[in-house]
Amino acid sequence: MSPCVTQSYFCNRFAHVLRGLCAVVGFSDEQLSSVLRNPMVLTSSLEDKTKPTLAALHDVLGSQEAVVVAVAKAPTLLGSAVETLKGNVEVMEELGLSLTDIQKSVGKQPQLFAWDYKNEEFHNKLRYFGTVLGRSPRHMLVGQPSSLMSDLRKVDYRVSRAATLLLCTVLRPWRRLCPVD
Fold this sequence. Notes:
This protein is mainly alpha-helical. The chain is built from eleven helices and no strands. α2 (about 30-35) packs across α5 and α7 packs across α10.
């Protein structure tokens, strides 16, 4: 393939995707610029991948405006499988979240919604926050979804370090045994 054909093909493909996204979703120039930073947008089929994903997001979020805001914050959502998004809603409903709770969670941290909630690691995080910190899955998904974005080992380290420092403060006679910052 000659460079001209490749460049022409790319330009046509790019223009097609841009027209499709603007027509289907209604992105502003700034939002579209954010979305196009994700290369998956240009490689995905508008009809077979992007439109069904946008429809699934609309079903969850309830409005086109909420979809635009979520996708502008997390362009990776456009690369999510519809089955993953539906599965995430199922998991959230099983955990006792209402549709309003689900919408708040996705609106607050749309990057998290692109993950597979049926994944064992995700459930391990929810179990950790419940067991160690006494935080319910609902609290974590609606109130603090960004905490679920962190690697569990990093979260455990921060919690363990904070607990050690707290104990050192409370148990002053043994302070000399505590780590110094």
